[in-house]
Amino acid sequence: MFTIFTVGTSVGQTEVNKLKCICIDAGHGGSDPGACGLQSREKDIVLKLALKVGKLIEQAYPEIKVVYTRKTDVLIDLSQRGQIANNHHADLFISIHINSNELRSPHGLETYVLGLHRTKENLAVAMKENSVIKYEEDYSTKYAGFDPSRPESYIMFSLMQNLYLEKSLELAALVQEEMVAATKRSDRGVRQAGYIVLVKAAMPAILIEAGFISNPEEERYLLTQTGQNKIATAIFKAIQKYKMKVEKQEDVILVEKKTEKNTPPEQAPVKMPEPRSTASLQYAVQVASATAKVKDVSRLCPGEKVGELVSGGRYRYYVRPGAELEEVKKSFSKIKNKVKDCFIIGIYDGKAISVAEAKKLEQTRK
Questions:
Q1: Is the CA virtual torsion 48, 54, 58, 61 positive or negative?
Q2: Strands 307-311 and 205-212
Q3: Residue 51 near residue 93, CB atoms below 8 Å
Q4: First to last CA, the chain
Q5: Angle formed by the axes of helices 225-248 and 42-60, to 10°?
Q6: Lowest mean pLDDT among 84-93, 97-106, 118-127, 337-346
Q7: Cβ atoms of residues 230 and 183 within 8 Å
Q8: C-alpha distances in angstroms, 158 versus 45, 105, 115?
């Protein structure tokens, strides 16, 4: 039996703020068994986990469409999995896997987001998961010469601008926290690595490594209904917390990204005036966030003047600043066809703050 945790939404919540579709990806399948333990295969366990997570979502939230990359033992190309999520306009992409190692001692849980692998260990895990493309016909042509066994092929991931990294990290942290608490397994943390399956997902996306099949104790745990139910319920609870956080924030809006035929030349951020007092408190639409400075900001929101500020150790890029929240909200109709995952922020004393914090500042002025 599964326990369903129902979370209410705030009064006056607009439909556009809600999670409407979640894509769940069971790794491997068909001719690709994934990692193999003494008694089991990765492809079989992750399929059971994916179906359990999907069932929990469907039972608790009938209004959310759950899309599966596979519901049976079939092989789906890595290049197609993220595209399936895109085709259904999914708001989240969650890929479920099980780890393995040449040694039997490694154990524990990991959750990954797309990025440059920080350690050789992260690279090794990504290389192992990406190696499944060799099961696909003509993979060298399909993936433009990408060779999952060559470290130099992964340079591409350091060049990619992931506009969904912040939300992906937020979801990954929730999933990792819930899984560790539910299973009492070792916490190996949230990591970044170059997973092909996450590249094409145009939404917040994570990859879960739900234990080590190469560790006999963890393999036995993963084969039990109790273990599978705890992991699935933990993933569901993390999604639920993410949903509650997103839908209770008035400033979050999910929109479809569209490209424009005539892209303007490379532009530097517009130097917009920074507020210095409560009288100059502003609101704006944040369109991107990055750990490194973006040179060509024109592509972040075509046709708009993009401002830049550094806050919380990140470069934040915004458009349509204004003194009134309602005024900035109207800008969504202009921006929603250009950027996905844009949201409203407050700007005070040159720093980004939440809308809730900005409203409290406004109250102190009255």
A1: positive
A2: unpaired
A3: no
A4: 53
A5: 50
A6: 118-127
A7: yes
A8: 32, 31, 7
Q: SS3 helix, strand, coil % of the chain, rounded to 5?
A: 40, 20, 40
Angle, in degrees to the nearest 10, between helices 225-248 and 216-223: 80
Task: Give which of 326, 304, 186 is closest to 251, Cα–Cα.
Answer: 326
d(CA 133, CA 116): 20
Mean pLDDT is highest, among 1-10, 88-97, 120-129, for: 88-97
Identify the three-state secondary structure at position 345: strand
- Residues 278 and 276: their CA atoms lie apart, in Å, by 7
pLDDT in tens, 249-261: 533 333 333 444 4
- Residues with Cβ within 8 Å of 156's Cβ and at least 6 positions away in sequence, in order, are 146, 194
pTM above 0.70, yes or no: no
Q: How far apart are CA 77 and CA 301, in angstroms?
A: 31
Q: Distance (Å, rounded) from C-alpha 233 to C-alpha 178?
A: 9
Provide the pLDDT confidence category of residue 294 given band limits of 50, 70 and 90: confident
Query: Does position 138 have pLDDT exceeding 90, yes or no?
Result: no
Coil, strand or helix: which one is 283? strand
- DSSP structural state of residue 144: T
Residue 141 clears pLDDT 50, i.e. is over it: no
Query: 187 near 109, Cβ under 8 Å?
Result: yes
Q: Which of 7, 89, 10 is nearest to 252 (CA)?
A: 10
Which one has a higher pLDDT value, 16 or 295? Answer: 295
Q: What are phi and psi of 310, to 5 degrees?
A: -110, 120
